Amino acid sequence: MKRTITFTLVFLVFLVFLVFFVPNIAVAEVYKWVDEEGRIHYGEKPPVDDASRIEIKDPPKIDESFKHQSIEQQKLLQIYEEERNLKKQEKLRVEKENAERQQHCQSLTNNLSDLRTGGAVYYDLDENGERKFLSETEVSEQIKKLQADYDKYCK
Q: Half-sphere exposure (CA, 13 Å, Cβ side) for 56?
């Protein structure tokens, strides 16, 4: 019982403190003054009598239309960010495809050059994995095939 009374008394003292002291903080006055060296100071208690009182205005209230506008703006910014990311991904995909195409075209160019210059022995592997040397007709067909692929993918 004694503990409850003590707690209630402490709570009431705290409540009275809040009621009388906190509103005074909110309406505290602010003064501006200039010292002997010409520096400007601000404070609640001016050290000189010629300090001027500054009126502090309440901050403007945010109305609902501004909140709504802010939400819409955030949505638009998110949509723009998503669009930028999609464009970036598409650009990277196209760059990768172009690099692969260039590599394929270089391979086709090298193979065509090798077949046209001759001098080397050309072969394919048969189903047993053994070398099967190409005849001149097969080399000519291979050149036509490679040239068709080159024309299709590299021009």
A: 11
